[in-house]
Amino acid sequence: MHPAHFLYSCSVRYQDTDVHLNATASALVGAMQEAAILHSETLGRGIAFLTERGQGWMITQTRAEVLRPARWRDELRVETWPSEMGRVLSRREFAMSDGQGLPVVRATTLWAFIDRVRQRVCRVPPEVAAAYPVDPARALDGVFGRPAPCAQPCWSRVFAIGYRDVDSNRHVNNLRYLEWMIETLPPEVPEQNFVRRINIRFQQETRPGDEARVQAQELPAGDGDPGVRRFGFEVHNVDGRVAAAAEVDYAPLP
Questions:
Q1: pLDDT digits over 208-239, tens only?
Q2: Which CATH code of 3.10.129.10, 3.10.20.520, 1.20.1260.10, 3.40.50.2000 fits the domain covering 1-144?
């Protein structure tokens, strides 16, 4: 294995599944998040190291392709590596497969380095950047395009943000935004389909005591799998600013 790569293994738990015993999209993205955090821990640049310095990483965008649903009790193998370490942004790749070695997810992500004291993006310190070997290979090709605006929402919901939604960075964890978006759709969409592609961009932090106002609409499907339906989402904070935006493709269950 390339020295830049890190391997994390886990199994799909019952609590990670939907009515069909398929792993939810947030469970798959959560496994990727866990792999990234544990990789940093093994390099000595984990949560405690960054917290002591008032620093942290914040994910700014995720692009993922789900090649097939993962099932309850499947053993998952998540391979992750930094493919680029810039001055303020880094790019991290993910390749997830099952116990038989069959691909499940391919994803690429962007992360910003944050000064938590000043609450702003800052340059990645040399002692952090130097700790990460880099492999420029991409798990998923393409650019980090902006999700289409949710100009004509068909569905909307308001979610009260509670303490359970917050992670160690003291803001709402990125998984919650994806969960809120999916919850805003009519239930027959996630019940009859699985998430095939995700392009989600995080723009503003939200915190406990705020409200997340989610809007969703169906978008014209792109050139892809037969039967795919594309949905656009925006999550607005209490000031009306867009905290997160996404395009999510659903494909019929196999």
A1: 989 999 999 999 987 667 799 999 999 999 89
A2: 3.10.129.10
Which two structure tokens, joined as six digits, stand for 55? 């620093």
Is the CB of residue 232 less than 8 Å from the CB of residue 201? no
| DSSP result, 93-129 | EEEEEETTS-EEEEEEEEEEEEETTTTEE-PPPHHHH
Distance from C-alpha of 95 to C-alpha of 97, rounded to nearest angstrom: 7
Q: What is the DSSP string of 187-215?
A: THHHHHEEEEEEEEEE-S---TT-EEEEE
- Report residue 18 as tokens: 């939907």
pLDDT in tens, 152-181: 999 999 999 999 999 988 899 999 999 999
- CA gap 216, 222 in Å, rounded: 17
pLDDT tens readout for residues 189-215 = 999 999 999 999 999 999 898 999 999
